[in-house]
Design a protein that fits this description.
The protein has helices at 70-73, 104-123, 193-198, 200-206; strands at 5-9, 24-25, 38-44, 48-51, 56-58, 63-65, 81-86. The chain is α+β, with helices and mostly antiparallel strands. It has a domain at 5-124. A hairpin with a 3-residue loop joins strand 3 (38-44) and strand 4. The radius of gyration is 36 Å and the shape is elongated. The termini are far apart.
Length: 238
């Protein structure tokens, strides 16, 4: 059993205990020196633990209270696991000076501070099964390089709409095996005049106008352009 944290299973709604729509979570079962050392984190997809500020700690029931529910703070995420954990300060809590009186309480505090800090380091160390307390602020900007991303690790849902611009696309895209839908909106000229001219010969041979066509003539239908007569072969029938 871990010495520095208590793992919680969360359920949706306001069901007790530990519903994501309520404010109270716990109980925790580890020792601590100061209630300010008690922290709370939720496990988000990734997986990545995100620290959630605690409003208060009930030292009798071992229940922590948040100022806002998990569901309210993270409405778009499904959170099923959380952790109440201890982060003991490494600042000296006892200062022994020459000639001072040593008390049992001071010795206990100094010993327990070192013990708790060692437990936390061990249970959160590399290779430990419990090493998961990592927040966004722990990751340095630019620290996650291409070699740390697994193949196909970035899913479409993780890419924000509209953020992939022309500069991030390859100069040549082979879409021959894909169905491409172009906008027919009057305000969105999906097919440019340049593209039509480039493929004019293919367009001429591919368009079938035998069933009729409606359009605008390239030259105004003035008197000099009016069709005056039509000559057709005669089959002798009247």
């Amino acid at each position: 059993m871990p010495n520095s944290y208590t793992q919680l299973t969360l359920v949706a709604g306001s069901a007790s205990p530990n519903g994501t729509s309520q404010l109270n979570y716990g109980p925790f079962d580890f020792e601590y020196l100061n209630k300010d050392d008690i922290k709370f984190a939720i496990l988000t997809p990734g997986p990545l633990y995100v620290v959630v500020p605690i409003a208060s700690v009930n030292e009798t029931t071992k229940i922590i209270t948040l100022s806002s529910s998990i569901a309210a703070q993270y409405p778009s995420l499904t959170i099923t696991s959380a952790r109440v954990y201890r982060a003991t300060t490494t600042n000296a809590l006892v200062d022994f000076t020459a000639g001072s009186r040593i008390s049992e309480a001071d010795l206990d505090t100094a010993y327990r501070q070192g013990l708790f800090a060692a437990q936390e380091a061990s249970e959160d160390a590399s290779g430990s099964a419990s090493r998961v307390i990592i927040t966004n602020s722990d990751i340095q900007d630019g620290a996650v390089g291409a070699s740390k991303l697994a193949t196909d690790a970035v899913e479409a849902v993780k890419i924000k709409d509209g953020v992939v611009g022309a500069t991030k696309l390859a100069s040549t895209l082979d879409l021959s095996s894909k169905n491409v839908t172009l906008s027919d909106s009057a305000s969105n000229n999906a097919v440019s005049q340049t593209a039509v001219i480039r493929h004019i010969n293919a367009i001429k041979s591919a368009i079938d106008i035998s069933s009729g066509m409606t359009g605008v003539l390239p030259v105004a239908n003035t008197e000099s352009n009016v069709l005056e007569s039509v000559y057709l072969p005669c089959d002798g029938a009247v």
